[in-house]
Write a structure and sequence with these properties.
two-stranded antiparallel sheet, 10 helices, single chain, alpha/beta, about 240 residues, Rossmann fold
């Protein structure tokens, strides 16, 4: 399944590099503003890991706030897109979130993972590594699909199961199969608190610009959340 996920995002890399930043309201005017609001405006002297960097939008933003940034993605094409965006200003590697991470203990002040963890089947290894490489009192900030959203993609409607879903994305005239794992809210929360202390749980709301651009979608999102954001603190 990892290879299918890698292949899907290799195929999606061109869209992420050239159109998502300007055309996807769900990224531009929903998830990204809510995530960035949870980070300091000034990240100077701070070490940040962009865990699942895609085409590097977050990597670029962290650099703009003064951080020293490491970025990683499972897709080689996404890694190359990030390198084209930020050059040598960040350390960008092709790495799997579900494996051992080649970073020293207590390396990072923040680990930020945008819409990436639902592509990982088992979070325990990932969170164990995140806890190891986060500094004491460092923060993990991540976003995933909201359980109330992705249950509608489940054929079995088995809410409490951690379930493999094959979604279908239409990009640039082609349909791409994108596998991911859906989880219940209690599973998400319990996995996090095994390793961290939860600081905030956020259900992001669309911006006013989203409302102006797509009022029908805005109304739907105000009734049924699309994403879930968790901010958690390292207990060490």
């Amino acid at each position: 399944m990892k290879e299918k996920i890698r292949s899907a995002f290799n195929q999606l890399s061109e869209a992420y590099e050239h159109s998502v930043d300007t055309e996807s309201l769900y990224n531009m005017e929903l998830e990204r503003p809510a995530m960035m609001q949870q980070l300091p405006e000034n990240l100077k002297q701070m070490q940040v890991l962009d865990a699942g960097c895609a085409a590097g939008w977050y990597t670029h933003e962290f650099l703009a706030r003064g951080a020293k940034v490491a970025a990683m993605d499972v897709s080689p094409e996404m890694v190359e897109a990030t390198k084209r965006r930020v050059g040598t200003k960040a350390e960008v590697r092709c790495l799997d979130l579900s494996g051992n991470l080649p970073f020293d203990d207590h390396s990072f002040d923040f680990i930020v993972s945008s819409l990436a963890l639902h592509y990982v089947e088992n979070w325990r290894k990932t969170f164990s590594e995140f806890r190891r490489i986060l500094k004491p009192n460092g923060f993990l900030l991540f976003s995933v699909h909201h359980p109330a959203m992705d249950i509608h993609l489940s054929q079995n409607q088995a809410y409490f199961e951690t379930e493999l879903i094959i979604d279908h994305w239409k990009k640039d005239g082609q349909t791409i199969e994108v596998p991911f794992y859906r989880r219940s809210l209690q599973t998400i929360v319990n996995e996090v608190v095994t390793y961290f202390t939860i600081d905030q749980i956020i259900e992001p709301q669309p911006t006013e610009r989203f409302k102006q651009k797509a009022p029908e979608k805005y109304e739907r999102l105000m009734k049924s959340p699309q994403f879930l954001i968790v901010k958690a603190k390292n207990r060490k």
